[in-house]
């Protein structure tokens, strides 16, 4: 049952992200930059559990579209820092709105209390699987930019 629900949820969320010109991984990257501010590429790779060489393939189109910028770290010129641009904030907001609409469709049968309990239980399972050391954004913050 969980596999079927997960597959359908992933399909719908992927479609919502792609409709806004993002892969799910790119959406995650923008969400991390929104939530944590500028991050070094190495830190961003660790937080997304992505090899540095693969992260570059996600960052290149984001940078080409003006959604992120990469700059040399003033403190360590060998290090690159990734920053979310204003255009990136706007794209994240739009894609986040689309993601929330998908979530509302998926969980429309649940009351607000049911949804809160489901979120709590899923976070408990995630934390148990990762030893409480998950590098992903929380369900409440991912793609939910403020303002």
UniProtKB/TrEMBL annotation:
PROSITE patterns membership: HTH_MARR_2
GO molecular function, one term: DNA-binding transcription factor activity
GO biological process, one term: response to stress
Pfam family, one: MarR
Top-level division of the source organism's lineage: Bacteria
SMART domains associated with the record: HTH_MARR
Annotated ranges, domain HTH marR-type: 1-127
Protein known as: Winged helix-turn-helix transcriptional regulator
Source taxonomy: Bacteria, Bacillati, Actinomycetota, Actinomycetes, Cryptosporangiales
């Amino acid at each position: 049952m969980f596999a079927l629900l997960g597959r359908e949820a992933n399909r719908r969320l992927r479609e919502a992200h792609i409709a806004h010109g993002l892969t799910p991984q790119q959406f995650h990257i923008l969400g991390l930059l929104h939530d944590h501010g500028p991050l070094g590429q190495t830190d961003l790779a660790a937080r997304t559990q992505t090899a540095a060489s693969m992260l570059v393939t996600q960052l290149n189109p984001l940078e080409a579209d003006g959604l992120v910028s990469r700059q040399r770290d003033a403190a360590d010129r060998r290090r690159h820092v990734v920053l979310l641009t204003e255009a990136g904030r706007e794209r994240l907001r739009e894609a986040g709105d689309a993601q929330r609409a998908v979530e509302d469709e998926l969980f429309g049968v649940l009351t607000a209390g049911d949804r809160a309990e489901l979120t709590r239980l899923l976070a408990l399972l995630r934390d148990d699987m990762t030893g409480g050391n998950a590098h992903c954004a929380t369900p409440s913050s991912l793609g939910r930019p403020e303002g």
